[in-house]
Amino acid sequence: MRSWNGNFILFLGVFFCVSGNENESINEHSLELTQSLNLARQELIQEACRRFPLKLSLDDLPPSQLEHILVDDEHKLLYCYVPKVACTNWKRILMILAGKWNGTDVLAIPASLAHSPGMFRNLSTVPKEDRQVMLDNYHKMIIVRNPFERLLSAYRNKLEGDTQSAKYFQDRVGKRIIRAYRENPTNESLEHGHDVTFKEFVLFLTNQSEEMADVVNNEHWQPITSLCHPCLIKYSLVGKYETLLDDSLLALNTINASYIQFPRLAHTSGTAEKLHKYFSQLDLPLIRRLYKLYKYDYRVFNYDLDNIVGYDLG
């Protein structure tokens, strides 16, 4: 009996050892596949950028154009955060990496804390000579999303929602949109700015009026190419919202931070239906005008408009 127990324990040890090795092998294989996809995305960005040669260099940009690129010196990471593309969770991770939060539970960190001003150093504060050293030697990460999906997410979150953040945007932006683009608005709408339609929002974006320049260029709907300059900065980690978990695991592994677990977010269902519901409120000429604002995002990050108009407008 003692011999049987010993053999059984030995069997369990061998079994779990083999299983563990298999899991490690699977994880390594998954990371290799994700890295292959990452490299392909880098190539596509460079290829697209060659078709749109820029007249400006990075040194020509005003410092304010580099404020979205956050710096983590210890892990040699530059991360360009894009609102509505998982930036809250990645800011939380940067707080953990910098020792600004005890523990590794990402979702335990209040979102308001992660977004608080002055929480992170950004590239705009770095002297030019040091900046170039970082650009040459640090990992450079960006996570992107279908431009119109991101835009719709911003609209629903900031102008349709009932959170404190939404109320702030409705008061600061919504009231002005209604005043400018709605015929015979009610006093309630003018007072609260809580019922901006998607079409009114798109008219506000596409008209680019000087009177609203301060809010038209808000980071939540500003093109990613304007926030992160992918044709001037060669990003070495290119994630997409559609493959967020795999891309985040690769990034954490790359900067030796695999001990942090990226949150597994509930899958957003009905994205295609939501896009159809809102964009069906727009006529094709207005969609074309909107596309022009995000044309470079679509081309540089290899997205198309098939799920909205049935074909690409490129």
TrEMBL record:
Signal peptide per UniProt: 1-20
Membrane topology according to the record: Single-pass type II membrane protein
Subcellular location: Golgi apparatus membrane
CC terms in the record's Gene Ontology section: Golgi membrane
Major localisation: Golgi
InterPro entries assigned: Carb_sulfotrans_8-10, P-loop_NTPase, Sulfotransferase
Keywords from the UniProt entry: Carbohydrate metabolism, Glycoprotein, Golgi apparatus, Membrane, Signal, Signal-anchor, Transferase, Transmembrane, Transmembrane helix
Protein's UniProt keywords contain Nucleus: no
GO molecular function: sulfotransferase activity
Family: Belongs to the sulfotransferase 2 family.
Name this polypeptide is given: Carbohydrate sulfotransferase
Species assigned in the record: Papilio xuthus (Asian swallowtail butterfly)
Upper classification of the organism: Eukaryota, Metazoa, Ecdysozoa, Arthropoda, Hexapoda
